[in-house]
Amino acid sequence: MIGSRGRVSGTIGPGLIGEVLLNVRGGTEAFYAYPANAEETFSPGTQVLVVDFEPPRTVYVERWQPLTR
User: Which end of the chain has fewer CB atoms surrounding its CB within 10 Å, N or C?
Assistant: First the structure.
């Protein structure tokens, strides 16, 4: 799961258990999500990167930053 890119489907933030949709095994699955930086907030639709994973369905995310040239 680490390194996967997903989309927030339920607000992620301090004191909240958010939700993110990730592509897994040819389909899309929902995972509980927390911000990697405990003070950040992500609204639905935000693209995020999974930086940590706790089985079975919890991920820690940061904002997706596309590479620039």
Answer: C
- CA angle (62, 65, 69) in 5-degree steps: 160
Q: What is the pLDDT of residues 26-36, one digit of tens each?
A: 999 999 999 99
**What's 42's DSSP letter?**
B
- Cα–Cα distance between 69 and 67 in angstroms, integer? 7
Using the Cα atoms of residue 4, residue 7, residue 12 and residue 18 in order, give the sign of their dihedral.
negative
Q: What is the CA radius of gyration of the chain?
A: 11
